[in-house]
Every structure is written in C-alpha cells, then in structure tokens.
Design goal:
Strand content of chain B: under 5%
Largest sheet of chain A: none
Order of helices and strands of chain B: HE
Number of domains of chain B: 1
Structural class of chain B: mainly alpha
Structural class of chain A: mainly alpha
Oligomer: heterodimer
Number of helices of chain A: 4
Radius of gyration of chain B: 31 Å
Number of helices of chain B: 1
Distance between the termini of chain B: 104 Å
Strand content of chain A: under 5%
Number of strands of chain A: 1
Number of strands of chain B: 1
C-alpha cells in the first residue's frame, strides 16, 4: 500500500526564509548583548573588590591615627567601660557545656557581623566622648 | 577645658600625613565609584537593547506564524 503524503505550500518562501534569517540574526545579537552584560558585571565585580580594599586601607589609616593619640584617653575610656559593666546587674550565664554546644551550632561570624560589631564599638566610644 | 590633649609634634606630623593619605584613598574610591556608576548605566542600556531586540524577535515570530497560516495545502 502506498502511503499518501501531504504537503503545505508556502506562499512566499523567500519572505519566509528572510523572516527566519532575520530572527536568527536578532537572537545572535541578543547573545552578544548577554556577553557584553557578563563582561560589564565582571568589571563591576573587580572594581567593587578594589573599592573594598581601599575602604579597608582607609580604616587601617584611621586606626593608625587613633594610635597617635595619647594613651591616657584610651585607658580612661576602658576604665569608664569597666565601671559601666560593673554597675549592670549580673545575668546568669549558661554552663560551659551549653556554651560549647552553642559554639558548635553557631556559624563563624560573617564579614557583615564583624562590621556590625565594629560599628557598635565605635558608637559606644562616641557616646562616651559626648 | 578638661578635654584638652597634647600630641607630640612628630606624632602630629604623622597624623597629618595619614590624613593626607586618607584623602588620596578617598579620591581613588570616588574614581572607582564613578566607574562603577558608568558601568551600571552601560548595563542598563544593554538591558534596554535586550528587551528591544526581544520585541523584534517576537514580531518576526508572529510574521513567520502568519506566513505559515497563509500557506495552502497542496
């Protein structure tokens, strides 16, 4: 038995081919754009890394500046802090076992947490200066 | 004044030098932030090109669909 095959006639084959080729061209253009976006993001990432280093350097320089101040100020500040903590009511601390367990569960402080702690420290120093 | 402090001249000079270094670093940071901002607007432009191109592709596909719909059964 001979199988009957059905065909569809494309009315305007040249136009059809043209549309497909042009679509393909646009898709390739989109891939090019995507590559350019990746390049831009990589550059931005590199620059932000550079910026982070500069900020860290600035922070170090500020620390150096603090080191040039007379030690008396720092010691008086530490004494003030000690007095404050002495006046605070004592809170029951958990046993060493639970502390160890907590240390196991708690993850290492992230960079952001470290910065938060540093900020809090600076803010408390500022308050004591006011 | 209770809060008066005295800093050795050498230390004072060192502080001045450090402050100048900080100023330099700030200048560099400003330069980098400028570059990042420029790159950000470049990226935005590329994203706009992307969606404009996608619109063109959408139109082309609908043109192809129309061509197919108009074709006759042989």
């Amino acid at each position: 038995m001979v199988k009957t095959q059905l065909f569809k006639q494309i009315e305007n084959p040249n136009n059809f081919r043209k549309e497909i080729l042009e679509s393909s061209k646009e898709v390739i253009e989109n891939l090019k754009i995507q590559q350019r976006i990746i390049d831009i993001r990589e550059k931005r990432f590199e620059l932000s890394k550079e910026l982070k280093i500069i900020f860290k350097e600035i922070n170090l320089l500020f620390d150096q500046t603090k080191d040039h101040l007379p030690v008396e100020i720092i010691t008086s500040f530490i004494e003030e802090q000690k007095k404050k903590t002495k006046n605070k009511p004592k809170v029951k601390t958990s046993s060493t076992k639970t502390k160890k367990k907590l240390a196991d569960i708690m993850p290492e402080p992230s960079e952001l947490n470290k910065l938060e702690t540093k900020l809090a420290d600076i803010e408390s120093k500022l308050k004591s200066l006011n | 004044m209770d809060n008066q402090i005295f800093v050795k001249i050498e230390e004072y000079d060192q502080v001045l030098k450090t402050v100048n270094l900080v100023k330099d670093k700030i200048g560099k940071a400003e330069e980098i932030i400028g570059k990042i901002t420029e790159l950000k607007s470049q990226e935005e432009e590329e994203l706009n090109n992307w969606s404009a191109n996608l619109e063109i592709v959408k139109e082309k596909v609908s043109g192809i669909e129309n061509e197919l719909a108009q074709s006759k059964k042989a």
